Write a sequence for this structure.
């Protein structure tokens, strides 16, 4: 039966049904001998015409793999099969890994057709049936949905021997996959698998039916010292750390550090964002950097010492948010530096206590203005030198 099925290419049977808090789809077919051309797992040696890895872009997907839930699903599958007089399925380690990979793929393209445009069976020649679902938050919930859908239940009760189950959580949403097989190889032992955060690479066809990445910048203008992270959306989902490259045409205006755009100088630059495997599809953004708005500086009017204390008086500035005083025994303010923050712009005097006798102190002050939750500082005042006797 298996040999006959493996030499036929049947139409894929797809059933779609909407279920509360999730959707489910089942597929069953008898695949021909093939090779996975998407670049993940190579199966039986063969060739496919008009396919090339150059047709794919590699996308990194970061998710949490829930093996604990996968094995809970296995228990529920075998309980259901027992009710119908069917033998228990074995969790196959290879199919388990394949199902996890397929779960990552459904994050980007929720379908039995893979993001690389091939059918779901192309990932592993041992797969003869697949159920997928998303949105369900537990093994019990997704199994209830599958069992109450004829196509999915039919897959679960077929005369398969092995199964792989994938469960990943991406951006708060769970994605589920069951991969069914007719042979048994190496059994996966639950105790050897731990839930974990992982990044897997998914191959996506360079076609608008599959590739859904949208790059954007939240701002077109930055101030010197500000940073900006490019946004990557995939079907309106945030896709973080997906492997994009960010480049600046003018590093003296903006440099790139750990994927972030850092404004370092005034001027204009072009920011390019692209995936390394599809550089020709890069998106360009013009970014202008201007200097920080100037903050009016103040000056120290006088200092008065008394015992181990010094009182500092300065010129009041009106269009600011506050002041910062620094004092140190190092004239270059490189070590032993302490600071005092004054949050009221109307304040003009501050007493600094608990200084040490016999020491020479250097004191300076600057103003600051709050803007967009950040402090913009003025230049420092001239340094005042004072020795305590």
């Amino acid at each position: 039966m298996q040999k006959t099925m493996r030499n036929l290419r049947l139409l894929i049977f797809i059933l779609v049904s909407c279920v509360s808090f999730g959707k489910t789809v089942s597929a069953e077919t008898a695949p021909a001998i093939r090779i996975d051309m998407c670049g993940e797992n190579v199966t039986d040696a063969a060739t496919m015409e008009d396919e090339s890895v150059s047709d794919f872009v590699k996308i990194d997907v970061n998710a949490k793999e829930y093996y604990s839930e996968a094995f809970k699903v296995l228990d529920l599958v075998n309980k259901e099969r027992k009710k119908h007089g069917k033998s228990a399925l074995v969790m196959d380690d290879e199919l388990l890994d394949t199902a996890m990979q397929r779960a990552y793929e459904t994050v980007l393209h929720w379908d039995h057709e893979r993001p690389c445009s091939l059918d779901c069976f192309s990932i592993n020649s041992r797969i003869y049936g697949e159920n997928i679902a998303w949105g369900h938050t537990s093994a019990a919930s997704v199994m209830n949905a599958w069992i109450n859908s004829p196509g999915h239940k039919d897959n679960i009760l077929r005369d398969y021997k092995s199964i792989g189950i994938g469960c990943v959580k991406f951006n708060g949403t769970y994605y589920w996959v069951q991969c069914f097989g007719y042979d048994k190889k190496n059994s996966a032992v639950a105790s050897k698998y731990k839930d974990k955060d992982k990044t897997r690479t998914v191959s996506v066809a360079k076609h608008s039916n599959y590739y859904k990445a949208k790059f954007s910048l939240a701002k077109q203008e930055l101030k010197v010292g500000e940073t900006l992270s490019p946004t990557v959306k995939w079907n309106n989902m945030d896709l973080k750390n997906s492997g994009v490259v960010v480049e600046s045409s003018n590093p003296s205006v903006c440099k790139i550090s750990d994927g972030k755009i850092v404004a370092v100088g005034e001027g204009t630059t072009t920011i390019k964002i692209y995936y390394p495997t599809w550089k020709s599809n890069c998106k360009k953004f013009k970014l202008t950097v201007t200097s920080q708005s100037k903050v009016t500086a103040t000056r120290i009017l006088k200092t008065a010492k008394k015992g181990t204390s010094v009182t500092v008086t300065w010129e009041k500035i009106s269009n600011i948010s506050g002041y910062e005083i620094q004092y140190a025994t190092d004239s270059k303010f490189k070590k032993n530096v302490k600071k005092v923050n004054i949050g009221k712009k109307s304040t003009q005097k501050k007493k600094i206590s608990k200084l040490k006798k016999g020491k020479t102190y250097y004191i300076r002050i600057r103003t600051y203005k709050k803007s967009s939750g950040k402090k913009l500082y003025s230049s420092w005042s001239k340094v005042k030198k004072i020795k305590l006797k």
Remarks:
- Confidence is low (pLDDT under 50) at residues 1-23, 29-37, 41-53.
